[in-house]
Design goal:
Order of helices and strands: HHHHHHHHHHEEEHHEEEEHHHEEH
Strand content: 5-15%
Number of strands: 9
Distance between the termini: 112 Å
Low-confidence stretches: 73-89
Strand order of the largest sheet: 3-2-1-6-7
Amino acid sequence: MAAREGLTETEKCLLVTVLMAVCEHVQTTGEARLRFLRRMRRQTEVAMTRAMADSGAPPVSWDAPFLMANAIAGVLPRESPRWWVRRRTGGTWEDLSISDDATTDYYHEKPRMTKEVFEDIVAACTPFLHRQVTHYRQPLQPDHIVAYALYRWASGETFDNGTCSFGIGRATGIKAVRDVTDAILAAYPDIIAMPIGRRQRQVKRAFGAKGFPNCFGAIDYTHVYVDKPANAPAEDYFDRKQQYSIVAQVIVDLDKRVLDVFCGYPRSVHDARVLWNSSLYRRATAGTLFNAEPAILPGGVLTTGYLLGDNGYGPMKCIVVPYGGVEQVPDVALFDAKQKPVRGVVERAFGRLKGMWRLFLRHHKTNMDNMPQQFTAVCILHNLLINAGVDFDERLLMERDADGNERPIDLGMYPPAAPVAQRNADPEALALRDALRACISLLPR
């Protein structure tokens, strides 16, 4: 058999491909050999180009060995991105794990906070999230678990879609949200509370400047939309706008901090009944909700504290509502005009809360047994971000409809179907409102 004079053109191409794959692989393993590898790659490319030219192959096919070599090596033939080009990785968790110039942007977009605040939350929740190491696998780290739960609440993505970005399964994602919810409630038991001490004085001073001395906050409710419940009577959750929802009753101060939250009743329950069944009402009735020094109002009326609400509530000693009506005398009209924007801080608070944590803005599948706890956990996060001075992006108050047009987000705040009758209201509640009306009339106009 005659000896072969040299390699065939096919063998040359295969050899060059293997050499390039080896070069690309070695190139990623160390900077010390970078100069040598670049020289070797140039020589290889020249040799390959000559081989392809000698073979008579059409020029359009010359890139095939380059592409195959890079595919084998697991890299693409491109230069490193410049510093102003935002990096892209294999998922949200990788985006959050890498520290570089883009990290701050990713933290503001994904979990809606700074990296420092995120790390503080992880540190507080870690004692409640430790898992036992077994022979089968390593457990997820607390920062991984917390990051996914925050991303789920912030993005509103389904478990099927969101878990892929964190390299976890659907069942793991469901458990992560449940565990992080419990951890936040355990780690921050006092973040949602009526103000005391110095904070109470600040709250009362802010409301007093608006004409409402000794006021502790404003109260209202919002609808949290859900898909048709599977583990509860669906008809109980069907509201007058033909949607399934639960009611969250919230009190906030003028800084939009949540002072009290009561969530979980289906929408079919009247607002007044939700109030009567809350611990807030029981504490107010027992005289333990407000503990400020009594303020003496015009007419000798004394009050230790109260809230501002709309006409979905009746006049009470603990809730001051507008007079309402069509034909109003000037001082009554002035009172209602002043009271409305002050109590409107609740709507602004819901805008920030639901704008950031968009899962509670849309319909979503949820376990009704755990939904109230999740909403409370998000209210805690809401307060933590305010305390940390994290700014709110006003653009989150807008969304695009199916036609691509911008519109305000639906905060789930329905006006009262009918104002609560005031004829049989508590005389002390009416006297308190009249005294506050006199306070408003004394303000400079």
